[in-house]
Structures are given as C-alpha cells and as structure tokens.
Specification:
302 residues; alpha+beta; 6-stranded mixed beta sheet; 9 helices
Length: 302
C-alpha cells in the first residue's frame, strides 16, 4: 500500500526513540543543553516563505536525496477530513525528534505556497539523540491561515529531558508539550500502524513513528523527508555530526541544484504535490506544473 516514495530515513518512534538512539550509534554528537524555542528571525522566515519558482524548478525532486520522502500509504475508506469546507492536513510530531526537525523545513516551505504562518519559532531537536540539536522550527505556537486548506499541527513533547540523563542519553522521555485532539489521536492510532506501514527490512519498522501526517483523509505518511544528516555536517564513518545553523541552512536554498538546498526544496516539491492533491489543484499557478503533476502521479491512490 505504500506509494513510490519509500522511507529509508524514517522518524523515530515516540516510545522507542531513546533505545534506537543508544543502539544505532549513527549520527551521534556530544550532548549539550536543549536549544530553547524562540521567535523566528525575520531573515529566516523570509527565506523559507519566499522561495521562488525558479528555485523549486531547479531542485526538482531532490536529486536522489529524497528517495525517502516519507512513506505515503493509501487509506481506502477513510473519510475526507475537512474543516469549514477546507481539507485538513494533520501533522503529529515532537520537538525532540530529529526526523521531525528535518521534515519541518520542507513542510513549512511547501505550506507557505498555499498560505501564511505566524508565530513560528526556532528550536533544536534533542541534544541527547542522533543528529543532536538539529536546527529547525516548532509548530507548537504557530498559526496558519490559508484559503485552500487547514493545517492542524501538534508537537507532543518538547526537547527537554523529563528525568535522568546518563551517558549523554535521555532515559526518561521528554517533557509533555501538547496533546492531540480526539480526532487526531484516533488517526494516528488507526493509520500509523503496520497495516499501512509494514516493516521494511531496509529501514526497520515504520509503524508508530513520527512525524505522522494525514493528508485530508486522502492518504497518510509516516517518516521524514530525508536524512537529518543533510542539514548537519560531520563524518559519517565516525558518526560525529554538528548541526548547521538556521542561517547556514537558508543559505543552501540559494543553491537548489546540489546538497542540502536541493534536498530541502525537492522534499518541499513532494509535499506541495500532496497538498495540491488535497486542494483540487488550487492554486493553479502552484499546482499545474509538470513537476507537481509528476509528484501527484506517483502518490498512492485508494
């Protein structure tokens, strides 16, 4: 049931993220203090909300870096999700999660093609996990306005460890931040399962992992858009990584044919295609392009 967008780089499970981090050994950095949330700088918000059509076109579908743009699965029989006549994109993630951190870059860019964010904040993923303190945004206080869709995000937990830290690892989980609505909790329990995301021998189990998104009831996705290593610098053989700053990441967006800029904008194009599928190809100037039509042709159908 998964579409052509398979997921080798998938998000960490809410319950087992610490265990996976301890056992995997990949992408480790020295533990530091959590990066607190803060209002997004004007130059960063301008960069992520003002990507040009030329940049999107040049990035294409990520130049092979977005072969794991989240596992999309069809959900036959799922009712369409609407609010005031608009389709609803449900996002469920957490601030500590490095794969959510990576996914928020292209998701924020894609959503900005359809509406306007206010209240976005910067934050880092957990300093005690793989790809420690990956620089990103938080949707915890964000508001989104669009004439085409409703964005319904929830960040379950912060990046602050709730208890003991040993060997640079958070052993007690993270402090609660937000709770999902009854509807959204049901969506995750019903569709973020092995029925829709069966275990993949190349990527380990994907069921129950975040970020989980329900695209208006048309299909669901579980997992990140690309490896967080794309927006970290380091040595893959030694597993030592250091996060790129927000300014360093936005600088890559000006280089859409290579590296992090191509991965982020390529993933944003994939997310744009999924949103266009929800909105009935509106607005036309965003949705009616060969690139977005290609994405839509590869999305799973019920």
């Amino acid at each position: 049931m998964a579409g052509l967008f398979g997921g080798a780089f998938v998000a960490m499970a809410v319950v087992v993220i610490v265990l996976i981090s301890v056992l995997s050994g990949g992408g480790k950095t020295a533990a530091g203090q959590p990066i607190p949330s803060a209002p997004i700088p004007a130059n960063v918000q301008s960069a992520v909300t003002g990507v040009t059509n030329a940049q999107f076109t040049a990035a294409g579908l990520g130049g092979g870096q977005v072969t794991s743009s989240g596992v999309f699965a069809a959900t036959p029989g799922q009712p369409l999700i609407t609010d005031s006549g608009k389709p609803v994109l449900v996002y469920e993630g957490a601030e500590y999660c490095p794969y959510c951190a990576a996914a928020r870059w292209p998701l924020t860019i894609a959503l900005s093609r359809f509406g306007t964010f206010t209240g976005l904040e910067t934050v880092g993923s957990s300093p005690y996990d793989v790809y420690a303190s990956t620089h990103t945004f938080s949707y915890a206080k964000a508001k989104y306005t669009s004439q085409y869709l409703v964005f319904d995000p929830v960040e379950f937990e912060s990046n602050v460890c709730a208890g003991a830290i040993s060997g640079g690892q958070c052993l007690a989980g993270y402090k609660p931040l937000q709770s999902a609505s009854t509807r959204d909790a049901h969506l995750m329990s019903a569709y973020d399962t092995e029925k829709y995301f069966p275990q993949d021998a190349s990527a380990s189990a994907t069921a129950g992992w975040i970020p989980f998104m329900d695209w208006g009831g048309r299909f669901v996705s579980s997992g990140g858009a690309y490896s967080p290593g794309v927006i970290n610098s380091g040595n893959s053989s030694s597993g030592t990584w250091h996060p790129m700053t927000w300014d360093q990441v936005i600088a890559t967006l000006k280089l859409p044919t290579t590296g992090a800029g191509q991965a982020i904008l390529g993933a944003a194009n994939v997310y744009t295609g999924a949103i266009c599928d929800m909105t009935g190809d509106q607005p036309a100037n965003v949705c009616n392009t060969p690139l977005i039509k290609q994405v839509q042709s590869e999305l799973p159908k019920a």
